[in-house]
Amino acid sequence: MLHIKSAKYLSGYKLWIAFDDGTSGEVDLTNELKGSMFEPLKGLAEFQNVTVDPELETIIWRKLRRFSTRVFEGIAE
Hints:
Elements: E1 4-11, E2 14-19, E3 24-28, H1 44-47, E4 51-53, E5 58-60
Antiparallel strand pairs: 1-2, 2-3, 4-5
């Protein structure tokens, strides 16, 4: 399973993510933020505040505790 080492907001719902296997790339989460769980992230002000939890090794937001790394498998460009 991939673990996220760093993440940086780019624009819209796009992030640049670096994984522990040395790969990195742009990930567009526009079509992944479905359902009421992701409502807090629909506002770009909150989405831009992405960070990496060093213990969980995945991205987190203040209003959404964690995001499964499985979502990123195969979608980084």
